[in-house]
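User: Show me an example of a complex going from sequences to structure tokens.

Assistant: Sure. Here are the input components:
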Amino acid sequence: MESAYTWEYETVINELVQGMEKAKQLHFHLCSTSPSRAQNMLMQRILSSYEKALLILNSKGAAEHPPAAPTPASGVVESSISVDGSCRSEDLSNSFKDQQDYNASKKRKMQPTWTEQVKVNPENGLEGPTDDGYSWRKYGQKDILGARYPRSYYRCTYRLVQNCWATKQVQRSDDDPTVFEITYKGAHTCNQSTNAVVPPPASPEKQETRHIPQQQSQALLNLKANLRVNTGSSDSKETIPSQFSFPSTYELCDTENQYISFSALVGDGNLGAHSPLFLSPATSETNYFSPQPHHMASFGGSQGYQHFESDVADIVSAHASTTNSPMGSMDFQVDPLELDPNFPFNASGFFR
DNA sequence: CTAATTTGACCTTC
DNA sequence: GAAGGTCAAATTAG
């Protein structure tokens, strides 16, 4: 039993490594042929998705190894990750749904949690919801002991319709009011993410009802919300700025230019509508964000990408060194013991 | 009219 | 018992 799981586990990792290698080769080809920014972004998202999948698998595998007595849902690796990196979210959401029915609250506690720090742009003075591509509904607000600002609680708008149990908490930083700490809990099992990913030029008002075919939007799904963390426009008291400068890692082919461009776009207040960057969903990129956006200023050229490459090797061979790993900079908790066996453990479904 | 937000009450955890 | 998290009725917005 255990050996079988070990074999499957290793096979999945091998497939992921191979896929990532091919993606890297493709990326280098793109770099040599002056790719568009959107292509670069897409490429980076693909690579980071692979990396994260490997990282998770490694940390999970190292921590608990193949489960001795797998539950019907414990075949997460097989069911969540396909060789081509696509996410079978339907399967995932189904199994997810089955389990959550019997104990939703308990399940929520088992969901992975990660935190992003979003710095708003103090210059434009605009405040409002940020947009991470998902539709959130505010369901509560609490004054937190010792915190100057209240904490807002959001859940996925499609919780009931699509049984999506993703939630997030938005807490304004005491130290720097322009910084918002956004804690995500659970991954989206709904399809709405694709809406923001491909900004409808004509009818943005239909975003929430649009449903893009799963397969077609899969790659985009991977590129999701991390570049833009949206607090929803609902925060009346704390008024979250709708525009913010986002520390990111656009260091793929010509990092600096891209980062500059991104900042400028952020400033003009038309993120999704005009920027090619947002044609592709910001994916797990968020996970690369440093809590200290200022560090990004010194983020140069291809440094980031080299960093990525070496990290991947380390991850695969030496198990998640959080020191070097891109994920080391974020407060992302992946506790193998707390992870839901049914959690969509694919690169696209987990880190959006 | 429908959907989202607000906010006090209730529940859970420590 | 206190604090954080969630619920749900009332209110507001589109």
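The lines above are the inputs; the final block is the predicted structure for all three components together. The first helix of chain A runs from residue 2 to 32.
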